[in-house]
Amino acid sequence: MIEKSEEMKALLVKLKDETLQEIHKAMRSGSENAGGEPTGDIYDQASSERDRELGLLLSDRERDKLRKIDEALLKIEDGEYGICEECEEEIPLGRLKVMPFARYCVKCQSDIEKIQAQTRRFEEERAYREIAFGEEEEA
Questions:
Q1: Zinc finger regions (dksA C4-type), where (predicted)?
Q2: Which of 44, 86, 112, 137 reaches 20 to 30 Å from 55, CA-CA?
Q3: DSSP 91
C-alpha cells in the first residue's frame, strides 16, 4: 500500500504541476486579450469575447481539478487515499491511475451520477411547468 501511495503521490504532484502551468498559461492569455480598445468588426469582437469566456471556463475547471488534487494529496498524508468515500471499499488501482483524484469507486460514482441526472431532470421539468403555468395565467 505504501508503494502504491508513493507512486500515486508522484503522479498527483506531476498532474498538479501540469495543471498549474495550464492555469498560468490561461491567465497570461486572458490578460493579453483583456483591456484596450476593441479592435476589428463586431464579429471579431464577439469571437474574442467567446474565446475569453471559454478561457475563463477552462481555468475554473483547472482550479477545481487543482483543488481535487490537493485533497487527494492530503488523503495520502492521512493514509485515507484510495478509499471510496461512499462505500469505504478500496478504489481499484486502475481507476486511480486514470483519475488519481477519484473520490469514489466506479459503482458509487455511477450511482451518484444517476441521482444527479434524475435531480436535474426533475428540476428542469419543474421549471418548464412553472413557465407553462405562468403563460396560462397571462392569457
A1: 84-108
A2: 112
A3: P
The whole-angstrom separation of Cα 32 and Cα 106 is 41
Domain boundary assignment for the chain: 2-104
Render pLDDT for 77-95 as a digit per residue (tens, 0 to 9). 999 999 999 999 999 999 9
3-state secondary structure of 124: helix
Fold observed for domain 2-104: Four Helix Bundle (Hemerythrin (Met), subunit A) (1.20.120)
Here the cell at position 32 is 493579453
Closest alpha carbon to 22 in 61, 70, 62: 62
Indicate the pTM of the whole model.
0.65
Cα distance between the two ends of the chain? 67
CA distance 18 to 104: 23
Residue 15 in grid coordinates: 498532474
Residue 17 to residue 65: CA distance in whole angstroms: 12
Q: In this structure, are residues 121 and 129 in contact, taking their beta carbons and an 8 Å threshold?
A: no
Q: What DSSP letter does each residue of 34-76 carry, written as one string?
A: SSS---S-HHHHHHHHHHHHHHHHHHHHHHHHHHHHHHHHHHH
